[in-house]
Amino acid sequence: MANKNENENKPEFLFGKRNYIIMAIGIAFIAVGFILMAGGGSDNPDVFNEEMYNFQRIRLAPTLVLIGLGIQIYAILTGHKK
Q1: CB of 56 within 8 A of CB of 63?
Q2: pLDDT digit string (tens) for 53-72?
Q3: Could you give the CA distance from residue 5 to residue 18 in angstroms, rounded to a whole number?
Q4: Closest by alpha carbon to 37, among 55, 57, 66?
Q5: Residue 20: what are its φ and ψ, rounded to 5°?
Q6: Cβ within 8 Å of residue 33, ≥6 positions away
Q7: Distance (Å, rounded) from C-alpha 28 to C-alpha 75?
Q8: How many Cα neighbours within 13 Å face the side chain of 43?
Q9: Which residues make Cβ contacts (< 8 Å) with residue 19, sequence separation at least 6?
Q10: pTM above 0.85, yes or no
């Protein structure tokens, strides 16, 4: 009888282990995207720096952030096995 009551009171997570792993991968994609977006400014406000508009900051970084958000949505919507 004691084992039955212990199992009933055990908290159950909303997502499974697989979901959390996929979420961690999505967070990593988002973090890398934001890190790649950083920088490109100029120390002197009178000088324009073309590095601000390179491929990494304009195309690659936002794409990684959007992929990361897509991975997060997939991780949330995917059901976990009990």
Answers
A1: no
A2: 889 999 999 999 999 999 99
A3: 28
A4: 57
A5: -65, -35
A6: 60, 61, 62, 63, 64, 65, 67, 68
A7: 13
A8: 0
A9: 75, 76, 78, 80
A10: no
